[in-house]
């Protein structure tokens, strides 16, 4: 079992369901994705290069794809809570799948050097 799955197993309800959706999209898009723990949070890497991490907090969920990825999609996430490198959302207001796919594509291109 990967650390990502171990982490998801600690969650319940809508938070778990939403983060499972996020993980399913990553797994669908990224063959050979690595799932591990970095700085105490579940993280996805491809060929040893960081794609993004995620976490659940009491009142929101977050993905941490880096500043460039956030800037690339910020116009499509008006009204979402964002900061440099972080997108916060809730199960009731999830990141739309097309935008999440854009984030993942951006990270794959950014790390393909």
Outline the fold blueprint.
Blueprint: H1 3-9, H2 13-29, E1 34-38, E2 41-46, E3 49-56, E4 61-64, H3 67-73, E5 81-83, E6 86-89, H4 97-110
Antiparallel strand pairs: 1-2, 2-3, 3-4, 4-6, 5-6
Description:
- By secondary structure, this protein is of the alpha+beta class.
- Helix content is 40%, strand content 27%.
- It has helices at 3-9, 13-29, 67-73, 97-110, and strands at residues 34-38, 41-46, 49-56, 61-64, 81-83, 86-89.
- The protein has a 6-stranded antiparallel β-sheet.
- It is globular and about 35 Å long.
- The N and C termini lie far apart (30 Å).
- The model has no long low-confidence stretch (mean pLDDT 96).
Mean pLDDT: 96
Classify the beta-strand content into a percent band: 25-35%
Number of strands: 6
Amino-to-carboxy terminus distance: 30 Å
Separate helix tally? 4
The class by helix and strand makeup works out as alpha+beta
Strands of the widest sheet, in order across it, are 1-2-3-4-6-5
Notable traits:
113 residues; alpha+beta; 6-stranded antiparallel beta sheet
Summarize the structure.
By secondary structure, the protein is α+β, with helices and mostly antiparallel strands. 40% of the residues lie in helices and 27% in strands.
